[in-house]
Design goal:
It is a single chain. It is built from three helices and five strands, in the order βββααββα. The chain has a five-stranded mixed β-sheet with strand order 3-2-1-4-5. The protein has 93 residues and is α+β, with helices and mostly antiparallel strands.
Amino acid sequence: MSYIANIICTKFTEVFGEKKETWGVKVFDDFGQTYEDGFETMPYEGVDILEVLMDSDNHMVVTIIHNLFTLNSGVWVDGEHLQWDEIKHLWKK
């Protein structure tokens, strides 16, 4: 069985009815989806986004990242596939 997880950078232009520009990411797999938002800018890309998300308090984000480790799976970040060999070092920190 293959496991497909995705992280997509998202620009929010309105937060709870307030016109405010913030950044976040949509994190999803075959079983669920969630958003991690509140970044003032989006300085992260690729492996850096994944590394920031590893410290998330969002249960769904943590679950999806845990699945990557458990299944030794790569992840799609903004349309770029990061192979397991490119991200596995993150769990050794």
